[in-house]
Predict the structure.
Amino acid sequence: MLFNGFFIPSWQYDGKTYANLFYSMTAPYTPTRTLYDYTLWQANDPLVHYLASDLNYVDPSSTGLQKSDYVPPVFNVYGWNLNQVGLRYQPWGAIGQMHKLTGVDTNAYNLAFKDSLVWGSDFWNFPVNEAWNPNWLGQVHRGTPWQTIFLKATNVLAETQNYGFNSNLGTNTWMSWTGDTHATDAAWTSPVCDWHLAGLLTALLNTNATPAFFSVNNPNPAAWAAQLDGLTAWTNSLPAAPIILSSNSPAVAALVSAIQAARAGEPGGLFTDVGDIFATPALTIQSPFLDWSDPGPQRVETTDADYEQLPAQMLAFLGSDSLGTVTAGPGQLTVQFTGDSGHVYLLQSSPDLIHWTTFGTNSPVNGGMTVVLPAPQGGGAEFYRSLLVP
């Protein structure tokens, strides 16, 4: 009654009149309500959880930050039962969160953005205690969900679908898959960027002598067949097993023809570097050694390493057209380049890597060519390169 009197001049109680003269007082009852704000963090691949974007939960019906007093549908908050698999977790064969989205590829077996047969974290076959060998480069995790370094010809960014207008299905898929919502930034992390990385790493780490490398632009089909002879390829035809390539087999002839066709389709009809050759579908996703009549075996029998077996082996002997070294001497520079014998190369110099001047032409002898030049005047920098003449 005392609190009620705070709002009226006086009141009667038990035959007496009372008045509340306080200017302020504590309310006798303060109603309260407990609110919960659940934050749900999910990693697609347990090995990829270092960036905030790795934990993005893209879902049109709910977000990573749940509404107050709302129980997230993917686990029991009240019992803290966190052992249920979240929708974000999508290894080979699981599509989870992606099936809720529109304008993305919902194929749970698309090897363009996940490694084949990696059904969960225990299915990785990473190299352990191995000396450097280009053969296992494709088994190194690349830092995006469920993928190792990518040597296959499938380009997820090239996938398109017509929704009444030209929609880039691939870019949408890759942005949702990685959680990177910036289209340009996401594109720079796409799997096909690994093609040139693999070529660069091989050139830096391979201990073979430079003249031993086989040029990716060698135009001689017989020379290519000889290089492929003895390599191991995978076949899923029963009994599924590795097979040894023979230089005079129709399958090897088909591979060589596919490589030549892929090179002819490049600007200037030449591969810029070793990595460009991985765009040849016949080396991986359209291998003549795989039976494509039944998609079933592709889903449950052919591993990522099986697909990439040929490109991984080829990294050991492939080289770009020309690798160069510069040795300084008294008043002069000795510039050396490797190259494919029987071909002509332009030799060029530049002060800034933008403006190039041709100072000669040369043809390699025994896989190399050497030219002696006067040292640059005034201590200025000078850069050198060789270009294969088509």
Q: What stands out?
A: DSSP finds eight helices and 14 strands in the chain. The longest strand covers residues 332-338. The two ends are 102 Å apart (CA to CA). The chain has four domains: 1-32, 37-123+157-189, 196-319, 324-388.
